Amino acid sequence: MRLSPLDTIRALLALARLGVTTRLRFGGRYWIWRRETAFGKHENAIPLKARLHALLEFGAWVWRMRRMM
Questions:
Q1: Are 60 and 13 in contact (CB under 8 A)?
Q2: CA 56 to CA 9: how far, in whole Å?
Q3: Can you say how many angstroms the Cα of residue 19 is from the centroid of all Cα atoms in its chain?
């Protein structure tokens, strides 16, 4: 799925909010769990571009879910 520029900005804002909520502890339990759930234990086997795109799609999904609340 291709994200529009507005969706990309919203995704980045949602990811920033998640980062602040988790106190920027990207090595913490939530982020380790999130990475393993999304990419498996061998995340480096997936190309960086694909991982970044998946991360932005996740951010866009988070934005949409928060709007629904």
A1: no
A2: 9
A3: 10
Cβ–Cβ < 8 Å for 38, 59: no
CA 51 – CA 29 distance, rounded (Å): 19
Tokens standing for residue 9: 């900005």
Residue (of 6, 8, 5, 1) closest to 59 by Cα position: 8
Contacts of residue 26, Cβ cutoff 8 Å, sequence gap at least 6: 19
pLDDT tens-digit profile of 17-37? 999 999 999 999 999 999 999
* Predicted TM-score (pTM) of this structure: 0.83
Helix (H), strand (E), coil (C) string for 13-44: HHHHHHHHHCCCCCCCHHHHHHHHHHHCCCHH
**Which tokens go with 42?**
């061998």
